[in-house]
Design a protein that fits this description.
By secondary structure, the chain is an alpha/beta fold. The chain folds into two domains: about 5-60, Helicase, Ruva Protein, domain 3, CATH 1.10.8; about 70-290, Uncharacterised protein PF01937, DUF89, domain 3 (Rossmann fold). It contains 13 helices and six strands.
Length: about 300
């Protein structure tokens, strides 16, 4: 996705947040802000939003190289989501429409996002689940996703945030136990980021939540908060090319893949006006979405 003007203030704000997680030294934070503003001012030199993001986050991480600034945040939300997972599992497995219920749980997990600036806690997550259950979703969209999952030979599920990975795990468990044939239980591959990037899930999160015990897990091969194909590893791109169904979680992956000519279902919560515009205003801000790519 090309750089949108409205994305630039968010990127600067996130650089400041990252810097504050790496140091309490206001002089260092101020210097990082100034350098980030310099990078942001050259936004026209960047071919896409991911190039700009990468340059700005790389600058912020210079404060403490090699440290994951969101490591504790991710661990906390994995623990919170693992704590409420048994109740969500029961809701899903007791439901009359187990597929839709598990799908709505997975969608609710996309509320976990440090870019939003919300005070995220267990109560907020539970409310997000309630909101996801209450929102109207088109039955045709849900049934079309289910049909594609049943008919696909190979599925690549591209995850998004830590914590959210637990909600995705519930959905995938339901697919394995109740929707797919036993012979198809291994056709799903789950993808995490190739390195620390905001609060996005990595292999460490996949292991902590047990996702790696459920399905094959790979990485994008790059520490970007999106599956931006030109930057991703050869392994990821081969998996992507050979999969006949892509399930893409979150706004970052949507920004990276929305114009791809591929059988992709985007599952996300709309968190900003830019995404609302890209989806042509068919939804409301704050709604969860099941959106099929127009091949």
């Amino acid at each position: 996705m090309k750089v949108q003007i409205d994305c630039i203030p968010c990127q600067v704000k996130q650089c400041i947040a990252t810097a504050r997680k790496l140091t309490d030294d206001e002089k260092l934070i101020s210097r990082t802000l100034k350098e980030s503003l310099d990078i942001a001012s050259e936004f026209e030199a960047h071919k896409n939003v991911f190039s700009l993001y990468y340059a700005m986050q790389k600058n912020a991480k210079k404060i403490n190289p090699g440290r994951d600034p969101y490591k504790e945040f991710k661990k906390m939300f994995n623990e919170i989501c693992l704590n409420i997972a048994p109740d969500l599992n029961k809701i899903a497995y007791d439901s009359e429409n187990i597929f839709e219920t598990a799908l709505r749980i997975s969608l609710a997990g996309n509320a976990i996002d440090v870019m939003q600036g919300h005070i995220l806690n267990e109560e907020y997550l539970i409310q997000s689940v309630k909101n996801s259950f209450a929102q109207s979703l088109k039955k045709d969209d849900i049934n079309f996703l289910k049909e594609n999952i049943l008919n696909a030979k190979k599925i690549l599920f591209i995850g998004d945030n830590a914590g959210e990975i637990v909600f995705d795990k519930i959905f995938i468990e339901v697919l394995r136990d109740k929707i797919l044939k036993s012979s198809d239980s291994d056709k799903i591959t789950y993808c995490v980021r190739g390195g620390p990037s905001l609060n996005d899930s990595t292999l460490e999160d996949a292991k902590m939540t047990g996702m790696d015990k459920l399905v094959k897990v790979i990485t994008t091969g790059v520490d970007l908060p999106a599956a931006y194909l030109p930057a991703c590893s050869k392994e990821f791109n081969e998996e992507y090319d050979s999969s006949d169904l892509i399930i893409s979680k979150g706004q970052g992956n949507f920004e990276a893949l929305f114009d791809e000519k591929k059988n992709i279902f985007f599952l996300l919560k709309i968190k900003c006006e830019t995404i609302l515009t890209l989806i042509n205003g068919r939804y409301e801000l704050g709604e969860v979405v099941v959106e099929h790519a127009k091949i």
